[in-house]
Amino acid sequence: MSLVLVNLLDGLVTGLLLFMLCSGLTLIFSMMGVLNFAHASFFMLGAYFAYQISTYVGFWPGLLIAPVVVGVAGALVERYGLRRVHKHGHVPELIFTFGLALLIEEVVQFFWGKSQMAFEEPEILKFAAFSIAGNAFPAYKVFMIFVAVGIFLALLYILTKTRVGMIIQAALSYPETVQNLGHNVPLVFMGVFGVGTALAGLAGVMAGPVLGTFPGMAVVLGSIVFVTIVVGGLGSLWGALAASLLIGWLQTFAASYNVTMKDVLTSVGLSEPADLATSALRDLWTLTLPQIGPILPYLLMVLVLAFRPQGLFGKRET
Amino acid sequence: MRKLAGLLLGAIIAISSTAMAWAADTVKIAFIDPLSGPFAATGEQGLAHYRFAVDELVNKNGGVLGGKKLEIVPFDNKISAKESLIQLKVAIDQGIRFIAQGNSSGVANALTEAIKKHNKRNPDKRVLFMNYSAVDPALTNAKCNFWHFRFDANADIKMDALTDIIAKKDDIKKIYLIGQDYSFGKAVAAAAVKYIGAKRPDIEIVGNELHPIGKVKDFTPYARKIMASGADAIITGNWGSDMVGLGKSVLASGFKKPIYTYYAASTGITKTFGADGKGPLKLVQEGMINPPASERAAAYMKAFKAKHPNKDMGQPRIANVVEMLAKAIDKVGNATDMVAVAKALEGMEHEGIFGSKIVMRAKDHQAIQDVHILAHTDEDITFDLDNSGFGLKVESTVKMAAADSATTCKMKRP
Questions:
Q1: Is pLDDT above 60 for A239?
Q2: Which of A44, A96, A185, A213 could serve as A208's disulfide partner, Cβ 3.0–4.6 Å?
Q3: For position A120, what pLDDT does the model report?
Q4: Dihedrals φ, ψ of B233, to 5°?
Q5: Contact call for residues A259 and A290 (beta carbons, < 8 A)
Q6: What is the least distance, in Å, from the CA of B52 to any CA of chain A?
Q7: d(Cα B68, Cα B62) in Å, to the nearest integer?
Q8: What is the pairing mode between strands B174-180 and B233-236?
Q9: B241 vs chain A: nearest CA distance in angstroms?
């Protein structure tokens, strides 16, 4: 039972980390109507910038400065890159962000090399906050939970209670109308893109010490981010949160329990082939839940697209 | 005018003939390994060591065949088996007769098959395969062939040595096995089950699982399972970011007992673990770096570090590949008769620079050598890794590990 509690907490951390990445992307996606393939690359940039800053002045300034730098870089990319490409339609935009992702990966390898970076959590958070049945829960993860929840509340407040938030919400659904009303929609887009990438950068800073800082970190998280925003529903903050947590728990619990296909198949009344080594269904019989864990989010996405194409909390069809 | 033309022609002939002579002056070794993508760091380190080894150990001492130099020609295979076969073709077309590859047993399996076929069809252009790192036991068992030589201890031999050490530790009662879900990970797990069962039947294997390779974002759930199992030790064949992810999660969960690994060092891994890994983290590997095996080894290491301050000598055996190949070429007297060179390598006994005798076992072309259990530490480290102050220190040694081990290899000799 205590293991369930540990897994719930671990899944919460994974989910909230995913949320930090998705909250920005879901706004960008619904605004531009185009997937930003480079979003996870900004996540990686955040980790690398923070690592670099931490070698000079320590972790904490890096936590503040790196996301800002990433956000400014994101805003510049929108202003001088995406906005020019935007005139030519969605496909060039898509290709642009795809190229950007490749470019960022190469740039990172050029400056930092291809090895793992020794990016570590700050000394002050290097202790076990508490432990459940011998399982230590690092203080750093508690800190991650607080930061992510804080960001969610701040975003929720800005989007629903402030004037800027209302303009963003309106611009998400009816950009032309909002522009006709005299608002500077391109500026709104640039701002949202900048803040979105800054959040991705912050997620990178938080994740770097835990998940490792290496050139492949964008690729590992890249596709799962899209799955999350599609499942949650485009442009919906609550959707991004719900989908992130769902996927976080799904993956944690799938990896934690060694349910085998054999158990499932025998429980529905099938019997194991006598000679498993030569059976055509050998692979099916030897599958375990941790092995199929990584594809479960994609399965979830297929189901959501089939039965609720607008996503769990979305208002618009994807 | 005519005179000038004649002069020009003469000059051209002179230049081209010297160019040809120069080209023929080197014996080329194709290095087919990842030089881009996520595993490029390992590939580039290997390439740097190969280039250093041929210069330092062979070319500076007069080369081979009375003056020819060894030359390493790099080919990027992006760690894909398909790409490796294309690069193999390019290398053969360039007239290269020696192929060195090491990273990924999947690639090595593809290459050894392709080389076997090529040598059968082109008896006048045969090539030899110097496998310096791919440790899938099948390569010197069921899939062995005359053209393949393995210089690293294979996964079975490493496990044999490791379990020799574990068998002496009475406080280990429960072991957790975890690895990447592909041929190598499976081979490690199978070997562990076999040897632990034979040497210490009282040890309970409390977990034996494979996780998707390179796809696990967070290893925390696996770490929780390991903690819950009450394991006294972990054995893993993980490498790269999978090794870092697993190790960090397990240590963060409060695991204080030994983590026996195959590849938890260098390319940023040593630096990332740093002080956290001191104590639990162990490696099973050939090659003695700390303490240096001899003054010659120390000088060799020092020269390498002077030339490549930001690279490590992660695969010491590369020095053995180069020295043994040079020896075999010199013994045969040419670098074109591959049957003769292969026969010279077969059964060769060599005093390796890193303090171990190496015997290239004739029956399966598996190098037999000392295998060490190394501890990740910052004490008594002469040569650290990742410039981190931390390095690997020999903790215990199994002399000529698994020298009499069985092989299923039925080698067909030409």
A1: yes
A2: A213
A3: 87
A4: -160, 155
A5: no
A6: 20
A7: 8
A8: parallel
A9: 7
Which residue, B284, B289, B311, is CA-closest to B300? B289
Alpha-helical runs (H) found in B34-93: 40-53, 81-93
Does B269 fall in a domain?
yes
Question: What DSSP string describes B93-125?
Answer: HTT--EEEE-S-HHHHHHHHHHHHHHHHH-GGG
Instruction: Return the structure tokens found at B126.
Output: 């045969």
Q: What is the pLDDT of residues B69-87, one digit of tens each?
A: 999 999 999 889 999 999 9
B211/A256 Cβ within 8 A: no
Rounded distance between C-alpha atoms, residue A224 and residue A210, angstroms: 18
Q: Does one domain contain both B355 and B390?
A: no
Asked whether the beta carbons of residue A133 and residue B244 sit closer than 8 angstroms, the reply is no
Q: B193 and B93: one domain?
A: no
Interface of A with B in 81-110 (CB under 8 A): 109
Beta bridge partners of B27: B70
What is the torsion angle, in degrees rounded to the nearest 10, for the CA atoms of residue B369, residue B374, residue B378 and residue B380?
-50
Which residues, 6 or more positions from B280, have their beta carbon under 8 angstroms from its beta carbon? B251, B255, B256, B257, B258, B259
- CB atoms near residue B399 (< 10 Å): 11
Residues of chain B contacting residue A133, judged by C-beta atoms under 8 Å apart? 228
Distance CA B259, CA B244 (A): 12
Residues B238-247 have a mean pLDDT of 90
Residue given tokens 């529903």 in the structure block: A233
Task: Give chain B's domain count.
Answer: 2
* Average pLDDT for A176-204: 91
Using an 8 Å CB-CB cutoff, list chain B residues near A293. Answer: 212
B40 to A114: CB separation less than 8 angstroms, yes or no = yes
Contacts of A128 in chain B (CB under 8 A): 254
| Contacts for B86 with CB less than 8 Å, ≥ 6 apart | none
Residue A251, chain B, CB below 8 Å: the answer is: yes
B407 domain-assigned: no
Q: Which residues pair with B177 in a beta bridge?
A: B208, B235
Of chain A residues 4-23, which have a CB less than 8 A from chain B?
6-7, 10, 13-14
d(CA B49, CA A135): 42
Class level of CATH domain A2-256 = mainly alpha
Using the beta-carbon criterion (under 8 Å), do A252 and B221 form an inter-chain contact?
yes
> Mean pLDDT in chain B?
90
Q: pLDDT digit string (tens) for B3-21? A: 555 555 555 555 444 444 4
**Tokens 């053995």 label which residue?**
B320
Domain that holds residue B310: 8-153+299-368
